[in-house]
Amino acid sequence: MRTPVMAGNWKMFKNSAETSAFFQIFTPLVAQTSGREIVICPPFVNLTAAIDAVRDSTVEIGAQNLHWKKEGAFTGEVSARMLSSIGARWVLIGHSERRQFFGDTDQTVLEKTLAALEAGLRPIVCVGELLDERESGRTHLILASQLAGSVAALTPEQFSKIAIAYEPVWAIGTGKTATPEMAADAHQVIREQVGIHVGSDAASQLRILYGGSVKPDNIDGLMTQQEIDGVLVGGASLDPIGFAKIVNYSSQAGK
Ligand code: PEP
């Protein structure tokens, strides 16, 4: 039984007042929700406001990135230990926007994942293919290669602490969602690859989230798929009522 993870990525949106206002509405709407882990990843500067706002709730807070070194002359960067020391619990690693605009590679994803685990953070490692990679039939190869370069070196014990987000890049912020069947197919490939590298136990326990234009009106269809163990939501996580609807998807839809 894999507990679904319902995660929101706020990207570079919301100031500190907007952060507090979000949680005032959102937290009561998910107060009775059980059987799902709820995670919000605000920008660095609003982590403390968010952590304070969720203190008496089951909502947990994550960062959107980190540096792999413990400390040092790395202007503008934030380490895993710094994040865990303020009460962050999760961290996104290798989001496609980081890969596209800020030079994240499979190698830095691995280093960041190891640093996060060492500091006690739960990494959500993002993988996914570009549109031309899908259209040329290379989705499975790309996923296999991203996994081999980033997380295949982890031990089964380390693997038990991470989640993977499958985010087809062509579906992020575009309004185009992979169909539930397309997502489930990619998740199966990810699980198979993880099984090859780390063993079938680690693979069967791994939470694989889907991300890419998830909305209140498509969440039930996605969560119906046995292979989908939660979602990573960008745009639709900015609205507390909409994101609460996503978190509170109909449990008849699957898990
Ligand atoms: C994301 O940022 O990870 C994402 C999936 O964005 P959106 O939901 O807006 O497509």
Quickly describe the structure.
The protein has helices at residues 16-29, 47-53, 80-86, 96-101, 106-118, 131-135, 139-150, 156-159, 180-198, 200-205, 219-224, 240-247; strands at residues 5-9, 37-41, 59-63, 90-93, 122-127, 163-166, 207-211, 230-233.
Could you characterize the architecture of this molecule?
By secondary structure, the chain is α/β, with parallel strands linked by helices. The protein has twelve helices and eight strands. It has an eight-stranded parallel β-barrel with strand order 1-2-3-4-5-6-7-8, surrounded by five helices. The longest helix is centred in the C-terminal third of the chain and has 19 residues, at 180-198.
Report the structural category.
Answer: alpha/beta
Bound molecules: phosphoenolpyruvate
Mean pLDDT across residues: 96
The largest beta-sheet arranges its strands as 1-2-3-4-5-6-7-8
Q: Spell the H/E element sequence.
A: EHEHEHEHHEHHHEHHEHEH
Total number of strands: 8
Total DSSP helices: 12
Largest β-sheet summary:
8 strands, parallel, barrel
* Rounded Rg: 17 Å
Described by the principal axes of the CA atoms, the overall outline is globular
> Distance between termini?
9 Å
What is the share of helical residues?
40-55%
Question: Which parts are unreliable, with pLDDT below 50 for 5 consecutive residues or more?
Answer: none
Q: Into which percentage range does the β-strand content fall?
A: 5-15%
